[in-house]
Design goal:
Layout lengths: L23 E5 L3 E3 L2 E3 L2 E6 L2 E3 L1 H5 L3 H12 L5
């Protein structure tokens, strides 16, 4: 059972949407450690295949999150 005590892939999602077609919101309320930081109540909003991060930038460490994501694929960030 995945209860957040071990690094078991219990929060992974795999999909293959058509480019520029994803619309909607995905969220989870389980704390997620990443590089020494703990992210909670994560909400991602997609519009026409792009992710909007207005809420993330308002929070503390928002710039840290944006820098990390830009390193992955900056053309899809708004």
């Amino acid at each position: 059972m995945c209860a957040g005590e071990f690094n078991i892939p219990g929060r992974e999602v795999y999909t293959a949407p058509a480019k520029n077609s994803v619309n909607g919101t995905i969220s989870y309320n389980t704390p997620c450690p990443y590089q020494g930081k703990i992210f909670q109540d994560v909400v991602l909003t997609f519009k026409d295949g792009k992710i909007y991060f207005d809420d993330v930038l308002i929070r503390d460490n928002g710039i840290f999150v944006l820098d990390s994501l830009q390193a992955i694929n900056s053309e899809n960030l708004m």
